[in-house]
């Protein structure tokens, strides 16, 4: 059972309620944090699609702000908040489910890193099905000038009206290609980094306060985030390009070949420094929020066991 400070039993670990609470923690950790970096994401996506559009990030924000104000700088926040809330709930909730299923039930003697990788890949596969429609709308809104749609609702209606519901999922395969490796690195690196931090501290995790444990989560999350950004960036560029420039009736593989022919290998790395700053900070705060939520409910923090 998870226990409060008073020692009263609360929620049983690995119960349905526990996994539901973890999913809620993922919603809280991912929806607001992704939304908060919308200005970075907006510029990153536009520069990925057209590297000559702005000379720098600051110049981009000045240009957008002078024409559209703060609302323009945060353009696309609606589908970002909705999509990454759903994705966060699925990612963290299913990760806890699959980690318990694979590591404790099915393969109790398996290598822990393999368990982390398998659990995170399985969780992200499902979470991306919820994310994909909103990511498609967000990218179209942010990368087309004038904007494809003024908000998520209008964007959804426009895509479904012209392409059917399949239009919302035409970027699913490259999204899996971006997000599954990203999440595998995010969770496995976090788990192993936190493990090494506790070894360096030289004290059992349980001997530290909740605040100290969440501090470890923040540091481990930032280190994991840097790796996530690098390994998933080429696919992130391709997702942006596909959603903005895939032709009607064109297969995903044909579109990717055509786009790669236009941008080359170097083009796959457009916007990487911005994404490292964005994802490192994002991942650190997500783990901080998620593990703080777990501590508030009386659960142990993630990693370091």
SS-based class:
mainly alpha
Number of helices: 10
pLDDT averaged over residues:
90
Relative strand content: under 5%
Please write the string of helix (H) and strand (E) elements: HHHHHHHHHH
Distance between the termini: 17 Å
Rg result: 20 Å
What is the share of helical residues?
over 70%
Biggest sheet record: none
Low-pLDDT segments? none
- Outline: globular
Quantity of strands, as a count = 0
Explain what the structure shows.
By secondary structure, this protein is mostly helical. Helices cover 76% and strands 0% of the residues. The chain contains 10 helices and no strands. Helix 8 packs across helix 9. It is globular.
Short description:
The chain is mainly α and 305 residues long. The chain contains ten helices and no strands.
Layout of helices and strands:
Layout: H1 16-36, H2 38-49, H3 57-73, H4 77-106, H5 112-143, H6 152-163, H7 172-201, H8 210-245, H9 252-267, H10 272-296
Which short descriptors sum up this protein?
single chain; 305 residues; mainly alpha; 76% helix
